[in-house]
Amino acid sequence: MNIDWKHIDTVLLDMDGTLLDRHFDDHFWLEHVPRRWAERNKTSLEQAKKHLYALFNSQENTLNWTDLDYWSSHLRLDIPLLKKEVEHLIAVHPYVVEFLLFLRQHGKHAWLVTNAHSKTLDLKMKKTMLGPYFSGIVSAHQVGLPKEDDRFWGELRRFIPYDPRRTLLGEDSETNLGTAARFGIRYLVYISRFSSRLQPEPSSTYQSIHYFSQLIPGFGEAG
């Protein structure tokens, strides 16, 4: 993909599915939590999944969706502790570190901008050691709005002084790319290989990549 980097000052990057393999999150919420909930409530895994999936879907596109305290209270489970049980599945996508080093070497301001809860961030940054590569990290819980909300990107400027016309956003959510587009963020990149366990499908709306190596001039298109 051809990106004219001299027109970009700021790079905003999502975390789950974009920098990190979303297999961890999919497995955690779709398999691990239902299994533990079924054990606690003495019900079948099938019934647990049916019940929990409906609860999860009811909170989609809200801050509750990623709020570990909300789910701990609502499900009567220690969600942060359950995450530690499967933290070995947390993994950085290929070529992410190389891309972050490229941004640093070329004087770009890289920010991690995520819907993730602070307890999730702490766990994943300790596991991956990616934190020092960023100018800073902003959670939607700090902003008070999820990225799915059109108002998010304007409110984000209270935390990051960025010019949307000179900003690139990398996301595995077409919904979030859509809210960013409406705000005026100029360079939008969809990460199609968000999970190592699923076949990637390019977006029909946004420029798509499998790996961040595709944004590094001269690196070649891996994968």
TrEMBL record:
- Name the domain of life this protein comes from: Bacteria
Q: Which GO terms describe its cellular component?
A: cytosol
Taking the record's annotation, the residue ranges forming a coiled coil are: none
From the Swiss-Prot or TrEMBL record, what is one GO molecular function term?
phosphoglycolate phosphatase activity
Going by the UniProt record, its keywords in alphabetical order are: Hydrolase
The record's section on Gene3D superfamilies has: HAD superfamily/HAD-like (3.40.50.1000)
One of the GO biological process terms = DNA repair
Q: Which PANTHER family match?
A: GMP_IMP NUCLEOTIDASE YRFG (PTHR43434:SF3), PHOSPHOGLYCOLATE PHOSPHATASE (PTHR43434)
Please give the NCBIfam families that the UniProt record associates with this protein: PRK14988.1
Q: What is this protein called?
A: HAD-superfamily hydrolase, subfamily IA, variant 3
- Originating species: Pelobacter propionicus (strain DSM 2379 / NBRC 103807 / OttBd1)
